[in-house]
Each structure stands twice: as structure tokens, then as C-alpha cells.
Amino acid sequence: GTITKTFTILPVDFSKLNATKTTIPTDLSIYTEETVTALNNALNTANNLTSKSSQKSVNNADTALKNAIKGLEIKKADYSAIDELLTTIPEDLSDYTKDSVLALNNAIEAIVRDKLITEQAEVDSMKTNLQSAIDNLKINYFRSEVVIPVLGCALLLGAGFYVYKKKKSVVKESAKESTNEKTVEENKEEA
Prior knowledge:
The structure is a single chain. By secondary structure, the protein is mainly alpha-helical. The chain has helices at about 15-20, 35-45, 55-70, 80-85, 100-110, 120-135, 145-190. Helix 1 packs parallel to helix 3 (about 55-70).
């Protein structure tokens, strides 16, 4: 007695792995470099499998690829333009009107820092609102430090105008007196 066993070698099944490959996002630019690198490594391992590979290797590659796809992280939005604008805000806002400073503070408080690159349009809108608030800062000309010198100048100018006006009226009165004197003298001569 010899016992003979027959083994049927089943072909390696790549169908699950091939299906997983089709779920890889087409645009990888929105994902972090680290997670894209992990995905590419898993994909390279899967692509290097051949019909001579074991089913276990194919299944492991499928699992690794699925995990790499699930692990893709979307990049954070770019806040560099906002950060640059924030450096242009004057340190002392006391020279500006309360309303314009309030609008600026509201624009700053509206900045949400946890946006993803897929929400960049919202971040750009925050930047536009901040730029507008900075551009619309209005100097408060009615602060006492500003008003007193301005009033002082106005009073001096007003006093100068008053002196000028007074001199002009004195001249007019002098002219009247001289014409009145002539009239009196002429009347004396006629009599």
C-alpha cells in the first residue's frame, strides 16, 4: 500500500484586493504627505504580488491597503494669509473709533482655526473679512488728545478772524467819522 493524495492548487484570488484598489481616491493632493506615503507603500506591496504569491499574502496586502485608505488624513487649511494680516494690525487701537475696532475684533473672533484644505474657501472668506475690517479702521478725531489741539487751533484762528473783523469795522467807523467831520466843517463854512 501506497496512499496517493492529490492536491489541487487553487489560483490566488486577487478580486478583493483589486476591488480595494478602486477605492483609492483619485486626488491625493488634499491628503497629508505622511498618510499618502503610507498608502503608496501599501499599494506598492500589493502591486508586487504575483500569481505565485500565497493567498495569505494577498489577503494581508488587501487589509494593509484598506487600512492605509482609511488612514488618509486631509491637510489642514492654509492660514498663512490670515497670519500675515494679523501682524499688520496696529498694537494700539485706542486711536480708532469704537465701531471700527469692534468690527475688527469680530473679524478676528470669527477666525476658526480647525478648517481643512477642502474648506479653504471659508478660510479665504475669513481673510477677506479681516482685510476689510483692517482697511475700515477709522481714526477717532473726537478723542480728547486730538480734539483739544484742534479746538486750540480753531480758537486761535477764530480769534484772528475776530481781530481782523474788528479792525475792519474800526476802519469803517473811522471813515464815517472823517466824513462826518467834513460834513460838519462844510456846514460851518457855508454858514
